[in-house]
Amino acid sequence: MAEVDATRLHVRREHALAVWTLDGPGSRNALYGEPLFAAFEAEVLAANRDGGLRAVILTGVDPAFCSGGNTREMIQRSGMFAGPAHAICEQYRTGIQRIARALDRLEVPLIAAVNGVAIGAGCDLACMCDLRIASERASFAESFVKVGIVPGDGGAWLLPRVVGYARAAEMAFTGASVGAEQAKAIGLVSEVVEHGALMKRSLELAGTIAANSPRAVRWTKRLLKRAADGRLDDALEFAAAYQALAHHSPEHSESLRAMRERRPPRFDEITR
User: Which CATH number is 4-210 given?
Assistant: First the structure.
């Protein structure tokens, strides 16, 4: 369990799954403060070392998923937003950008269960996840221009890779809010569910992922992330290397046995 009071990040284990919940209702789960940045880094490190962990779900305490940066600190020019321009630049690098870097290193699939508004850095946080499921109450806004700033946490890199350049440009240039159904139509989320069913559906999806070979899923995620910006030749080389490892893994042997015996594979004993 993370230090909930200090970090505003609850961590709950559900068998082979973990649920990370942003808990800062006073700021609508805003992303700020050294303890929270450090908590994301620590949880990613712990997840990568945990061979029994198969997937992570990230959500927020109702009614928001994440409202982005702390606007009170922006107004007061305190915290990350204090000091001259060069100081703010460094504070972004050593502050909120650590979340993007940490989540980029997470080896298991990360599912965003978007339960409410995902604004600014909150929208970008959802884009840092591999998959996104939205409650019918969810909405998204790449709204930095509305307060006269730019996506400082990596949104200009993240959002186009999820929805394409033109859609990302429209969201970023206008700052307009996108509802759950429109988010599904443009590919920002894969499905929309009733609000009360959001966590149940997210756990179902995570469970479907968890039923597969843990090593193969982690290696597949590495291949997908490398392929996003690489050349085909490089992708094929990495695929060949990981495939060679996979063919010699005990999970591969167990998967074949289970297929032959017409039963679900049993990976728990292998990954302990």
Answer: 3.90.226.10
Instruction: Give the Cα separation of 157 and 178 in Å (integer).
Output: 19
Q: Which long-range contacts (CB under 8 A, 24 or more apart) does 217-221 make?
A: 217/54, 217/55, 217/108, 217/109, 218/107, 218/108, 219/245, 219/246, 221/107, 221/108, 221/109, 221/130
Beta bridge partners of 60: 22
ω into 264 cis (within 30 of 0): no
Fold type of domain 214-271: Lyase 2-enoyl-coa Hydratase; Chain  A, domain 2 (1.10.12)
Domain 4-210 identical in fold to domain 214-271: no
> What's the pLDDT band for 7 if we cut at 50, 70, 90?
low
Q: What is the pTM of this model?
A: 0.93
| CB 44, CB 109: distance < 8 Å | no
Over 60: is that where the pLDDT of 234 sits? yes
Torsion of CA 199, 201, 205, 207, to 10 degrees: 70
Please state the φ and ψ torsions of residue 224, each to the nearest 5 degrees. Answer: -60, -40
What tokens appear for 111 in the block?
A: 């599912």
Q: Which amino acid is at 127?
A: C
- Domain ranges across the chain: 4-210, 214-271
| Residue of 41, 32, 38, 36 lying closest to 21 (CA atoms) | 36
